[in-house]
């Protein structure tokens, strides 16, 4: 999700997530523990161009793909690289992994966290996009988003999240966030975005459409999902 400028009873609207925080059970991606960052709204162009929406763009040549075993064996004489790989791969049993060159990332759920209400867990549909309205948010409320996902087969490099939001056909926000590099493991990774505040006021309320994507450095897309959500005067009854 994400927003940009809308009116707050005539003022500018505020919008949605960007930076990151990975839980301990996942993988620290460089942020120190402490206060959560808060993304300020920024002005977005009124309409999305093809370049802006798909500027994952031309595929970057990152060299030949390698299986997990080949990754682990390569550069064994480099002590710092060896330690980094051991930390990244954790307890992966090299004797049990296959020879797959392609990592697999399965996005399992999106959770909306807010102090105003119980956590709202939204499972990702197995096939297609959510039908109808996916969720509703209360205007002026504080909340953050948390993803859960699983990595298998191989290391996924440069996994990143992007989200574009429209209201009445007008693009109101575009967010891109690097999540990091993750090794395959049985445990589920979780990644939490910084706290946001939904816009408020008569012009902020209503229906929004959004598109969320997860891609890696090879521009392999693991999830593209289109959905709609509402901003209302209050949380929906549970």
Automatic annotation (TrEMBL):
| Family listed | Belongs to the Rho GDI family.
- Compositionally biased intervals (Acidic residues): 22-32
Q: Report the locations given in the UniProt record.
A: Cytoplasm
One of the record's GO molecular function terms: Rho GDP-dissociation inhibitor activity
Task: Show the ranges annotated as biased composition (Basic and acidic residues).
Answer: 33-43, 67-80
Q: What is its main location?
A: cytoplasm
The name of this protein is: Rho GDP-dissociation inhibitor 1-like
InterPro entries recorded: Ig_E-set, Rho_GDI, RhoGDI_dom_sf
Q: Which GO terms describe its cellular component?
A: cytoplasm
Q: Which domain of life is it from?
A: Eukaryota
An example GO BP is:
Rho protein signal transduction
Positions of region (Disordered): 1-80
- Originating species: Nelumbo nucifera
Q: Keywords, A to Z?
A: Cytoplasm
